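User: quick one, fold this
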Amino acid sequence: MERLFDSDTATMSWIFTLQSAGYFTGAVACGFVFDRINNELQLVIVTCIEAVATIVAPFFTQLPLFIVVLFIQANSQGFIDASKFGFYRVLKRTYSTCCVK
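Assistant:
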C-alpha cells in the first residue's frame, strides 16, 4: 500500500488509527440512536453504507480519501457490532409474537 499511495509507514499507520476511531464512534452513535429510530431501518441503512464503502474503497488512489472511506466503513461496522444484541432482541420479539405460540 505504501507504493500504491506513494507514502511512508508513519503516514500509512493513520489508516489503522482512524479505522479504530471510526469503529468507536460508530459504537457510540449506536448507543444514542438505537432505541429512538426503527431498528430494522437502521440495520438496512448502516449495512448499505458499509457495502458502498467496501465497494468504492479500492478505487481511491489518494490516501486522505481512502482513509475517509475506511473511517466510514469502520463506523458502520462499529454501529452494527454494538447493536447486535439489540437486533437479536428485535428479531426475538418479532418472531415470538408471530410464529411461536
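User: anything notable?
Assistant: The chain has a mean pLDDT of 83.
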